[in-house]
Amino acid sequence: PKVSGSTQRSAENRLRKAGDKIEAKRREIEDLNADLEDEVRAIRRKWDEAASQVDEIEIGLESDDIDVRDIRVVWIRK
Predict the structure, then answer these.
(1) pLDDT-based confidence at 1, cuts 50/70/90?
(2) Which of 13, 41, 52, 68 is spaced 20 to 30 Å from 61 by Cα?
């Protein structure tokens, strides 16, 4: 079937607009991914610094070797 010139131009225009929308969304996703990576790096830096300030101590097996002055909960990722 033969397609008129205006119909073809209209279809090409719709196709171009759809392609532009796809490209805009792709850029938006890339920007969001970059923002997410920045946030993750900032969180890692924060917790790496906190982890570097943790002091490990060895506690003997005898009960009189233990002197509890402060209690804290620490989570260490493996």
Answers:
(1) low
(2) 52
R_g over Cα of the chain: 30
Query: Rounded to whole angstroms, how far apart are CA atoms 26 and 34?
Result: 12
Strand positions, DSSP E, 3-78: none
pTM over 0.70: no
CA distance 70 to 53: 16
Residue labelled with tokens 């002197």 = 67
d(C-alpha 3, C-alpha 47), whole Å: 63
Q: Which residue is listed with tokens 């990722």?
A: 77
